[in-house]
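Please fill in the sequence for the structure shown.

STRUCTURE ENCODING:
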């Protein structure tokens, strides 16, 4: 069985949109494209390298795939990420049945994305690593398909844009495996799925009359 591993560059308010450059994804009037570059340092590079160290295939939404396909196959000869991405399988989710990819070793997931991903997850092969792909990620979270989460939380607030969790209604517990802080204040964390959300209470054993009245007035 393969793991589904999420890698996400995030702002403090959970935005993922267009970390790499101003023209990467300006949809919705997003004006902060390229917000990662000024804060990306050696520690961030090492964390990305660690994520890419184990064998993996890419699992991408269509828009992120288009961004990658317009960039990485054209990277200079000897570029390590370009060569890595060129040589591995790219699995792509798309609502357009007529889409025909041109990047080598690309496979479309078909009409039933969730069923295809579940089958891939149960098959033999390397882990499935996501990059970007907010809509696909929200589908993965909604169906409980994320096994591991690597977050790079940058000390910026973007005020709007595509967010990691959106309004999926997803809930789960994750276990923190490792965490560090870069020289520019980026919090680098690795989490593993750890069951469902547990709840507890700091309330009195017996609620006060004021508390009971408060509950009656909740809307």
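FILLED IN BY: designer on duty
SEQUENCE:
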């Amino acid at each position: 069985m393969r793991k589904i591993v999420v890698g996400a560059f995030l702002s403090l308010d959970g935005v993922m949109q267009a970390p790499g450059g101003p023209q990467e994804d300006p949809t919705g009037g997003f004006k902060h494209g390229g917000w990662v570059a000024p804060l990306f340092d050696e520690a961030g590079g090492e964390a990305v390298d660690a994520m890419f160290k184990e064998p993996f295939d890419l699992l991408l939404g269509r828009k992120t795939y288009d961004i990658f396909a317009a960039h990485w196959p054209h990277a200079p000869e000897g570029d390590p990420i370009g060569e890595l991405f060129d040589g591995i399988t790219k699995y792509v989710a798309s609502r357009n049945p007529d889409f025909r990819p041109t990047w080598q070793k690309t496979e479309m997931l078909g009409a039933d994305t969730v069923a295809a991903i579940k089958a891939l997850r149960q098959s033999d092969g390397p882990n499935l690593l996501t990059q970007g792909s907010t809509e696909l990620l929200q589908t993965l979270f909604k169906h409980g398909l994320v096994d591991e989460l690597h977050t790079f939380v940058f000390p910026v607030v973007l005020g709007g844009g595509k967010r990691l969790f959106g309004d999926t209604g997803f809930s789960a517990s994750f276990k923190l495996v490792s965490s560090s802080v870069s020289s520019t204040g980026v919090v680098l964390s690795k989490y593993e799925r750890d069951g469902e959300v547990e709840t507890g209470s700091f309330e009195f054993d017996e609620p006060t009359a004021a508390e009971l009245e408060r509950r009656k007035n909740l809307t």
